[in-house]
Design a protein that fits this description.
With 281 residues, this protein is α+β, with helices and mostly antiparallel strands. The protein contains 11 helices and 6 strands. The strands form 2 sheets. Strands 5-4-3-6 form a 4-stranded mixed β-sheet. It comes from Neisseria sicca.
Length: 281
């Protein structure tokens, strides 16, 4: 079923008769459909996050149910060939990278945020499902890459983009002790990807946009999702313990940087590399 849907979304003959507002409307419609399809895992995961009662179900805690649900959806996507084994390996890496960050950020000396509910699948105060929130971002980028037939022009050398991604990740840990170099890293990334362009196909015509803009936009929507997650009490920041408050706008920049790091991992997938043109100057 989904395989047929993907074919319908991706394969369109060139329509030279479409112009003006009609072309805009159709391209915008298919752009939205492809975005929704790319968000399959992320969307289902966050819907489950909002629908599963805080008290759990059938004696199973909310966090444990979310872990069961996330693993089941990933297994189904693999079974129905909506993801390859290479992509699952990358998503597993996103989970491990995200869980390590969660474990550090919720540790006793840091306490940047917390998971208040009890669960059997908590390690060091972090439920295992938490890593899937990062895996969801990776899954979205992988699916969008295929559905939009994404190609990258003027990508920086892989070693330099990898170094930037590692520095971003390390800074999330070290800024508690050595100072926050987030904006220096953002400035470096701005120069690194200044010439990089994303080519994507919403319907039958290739469009382009700056890669940096895509990082910012995806980061913004993750920030909105994080606000909903804390509103439903799945996790909470120190300023939300007494009453809910919106997640600080500075988290938007953090998510944009994490999206950049996730993109770097996806860009190193073997079947994705042939769609990337690395800059030679």
């Amino acid at each position: 079923m989904l395989g047929k849907l993907d074919t319908w979304l991706m394969e369109h003959p060139k329509r030279n008769d479409l112009r003006g507002w009609r072309r805009f409307a159709i391209e915008f419609w298919f752009f939205g459909l492809k975005e929704a399809r790319a968000c399959l895992f992320a969307g289902l995961f966050f819907i489950a996050m909002f629908l599963i009662p805080k008290t759990g179900w059938l004696g199973i805690s909310r966090y444990d149910l979310l872990l069961i649900f996330a693993v089941s959806v990933q297994a189904a996507m693999l079974y129905f060939k909506l993801e390859t084994w290479d992509e699952v390996k990358s998503i597993t890496l996103f989970h491990l990278v995200g869980f390590a960050l969660e474990w550090f950020k919720t540790s006793g000396d840091i306490r940047s945020w917390s998971y208040p509910d009890e669960a059997y699948t908590k390690i060091g105060g972090v439920p295992l499902f938490a890593g899937f929130m990062y895996a969801a971002v990776g899954s979205y980028i992988i699916q969008a890459w295929r559905l939009f037939n994404i190609r990258i022009k003027s990508h920086p050398p892989y070693w330099l983009s990898t170094l930037c991604a590692l520095a971003i990740y390390v800074n999330f840990f070290t800024h508690h002790y050595l100072g926050d170099y987030r904006w220096y890293l953002a400035a470096f990334a701005l120069g690194l990807y200044a010439r990089t362009t994303v080519l994507y196909t919403p319907y039958d015509t290739t469009r382009k946009m700056p890669l940096l803009l895509s990082f910012v936009l995806i980061g913004f929507f993750i920030w909105l999702a994080e606000n909903l997650g804390t509103l439903f009490g799945v996790w909470r920041y120190p300023n939300q313990i007494g009453a809910w408050a919106s997640v600080h706008i500075s988290k938007w920049s953090s998510w944009a940087l994490l999206v950049m790091m996730t993109f770097t991992i996806v860009a190193n997938l073997k079947h994705v590399k042939h769609t990337i043109s690395v800059s030679k100057d």
